[in-house]
Amino acid sequence: MMRTAFNFCSTSQNSDNSFYPRRPRDPANRRVFLCYDVFMRVLGIDYGEKRIGLAVADTDHPVALPRSTVENGKGTIRDIAAFCRQEQVGQIVMGLPLTLRGEEGEAAKKTRAFGEALAKEAGIATEYLDERLTTAALPKEGVVSRDAAAAALILQTWLDRRSLGEGGLDRRGREKE
Q1: Of 6, 109, 151, 168, which shows the fewest CB atoms inside 10 Å?
Q2: Are 80 and 52 in contact (CB under 8 A)?
Q3: Domains of the chain
Q4: Rounded to whole angstroms, what are the CA distances from 29 to 17, 64, 123, 165?
Q5: pLDDT grade, residue 47 (50/70/90)?
């Protein structure tokens, strides 16, 4: 589930009775409506015990771009949290490696533990998406970083589902309805 930040947005009325946003400090504002921020930067993560692939996208231009691959070790969570603050990330999407039966195995539990620790460190909501066979779907040659490309594939899947009104996985790893 995507968390949405609600703000009070000031608006004014045009001559044709339509509304347009105005600056909040403008004293001419007479109407205030509750609206929500839907544009944000999203970080996609392909978690691995050795390497972690990162990809980013903006929800107003929903194209996931592979960003980098980082070595998994001490300080990785702190470094990715700093990256989130630097890039002003508002949502994290992590691939959850479910078994072919759709169950959570050891790898999924480690991924979830990493995601929860990162969410706590960065203070950003984390969502999980079934990543079965994402790395296998990538070409073996011509890709600079398979981990970052897998993260981009996970993030692009999330963006596509979001645009269609579909969800990812809930906190228990089951498909959202």
Answers
A1: 6
A2: yes
A3: 6-36 (no CATH), 41-163 (3.30.420.140)
A4: 15, 37, 33, 33
A5: very high
Contact 55, 151 (CB under 8 A): yes
Query: Backbone phi, then psi, for 135, in 5-degree steps?
Result: -65, -35
Structure tokens at 67: 């960003």
Q: Which of 115, 105, 103 is nearest to 43 (CA)?
A: 115
Per-residue pLDDT of 122-174, as tens digits, reads: 999 999 999 887 767 777 777 678 899 999 999 999 998 887 765 554 444 45
Helix ranges (H only) for the chain are 76-87, 106-122, 146-163
Owner of token pair 């960065």: 122
DSSP notation for 78-129: HHHHHHHHHHTEEEEEEEE-B-TTS-B-HHHHHHHHHHHHHHHHHT--EEEE
Asked if residues 88 and 57 have their Cβ atoms less than 8 Å apart, the reply is no
Is 82 in contact with 74 (CB distance < 8 Å)?
A: no
Written as one letter, the residue type at 12 is S
Q: pTM, whole model, 2 decimals?
A: 0.70
